[in-house]
Each structure stands twice: as C-alpha cells, then as structure tokens.
Design brief:
single chain, alpha+beta, three-stranded antiparallel sheet, 2 helices, 3 strands, binds zinc ion
Amino acid sequence: MELIPREYVALPGGGLKRVYSLVGADGSVILGDHGAWLASRAKRCACGSVCLGSGQTCGSSDCIANLASA
Ligand SMILES: [Zn+2]
C-alpha cells in the first residue's frame, strides 16, 4: 500500500495547510491540495461522487436504492 504523503505548508497567520508534492516530468515540484488528492483516490459511487466512509455509495437514497437492486 502506498504511503500517504504528509507534508504541510505554512499559511500566513501561522496556520498549516496539508499538501502533497509531486515531481513533474520536467523535475519541478508541484504542490497539491491534500484533500483533493484524497478525493482523487477515493472510492467512487456509481454516480461519480466520493463514497462515504467504507460504504459503496455516496449516501444518497437513489444510489443506495440502485445498489440494493443491483
Ligand atoms: Zn452516488
């Protein structure tokens, strides 16, 4: 299993923002938003939304009904 990158950048005012870094094809480092990174890897419901928790759907009643009838 791939390790989740744990990187932060300091924000003005003393906050920290969790990010991840990627090395681009040209060698430059790209910082990405950690939340977006997680979302991009998250399990997707049939409708395309991110699944909730360990569930198989996004939690909407329509999707749950579809799953139950599949
Ligand atoms: Zn859904």
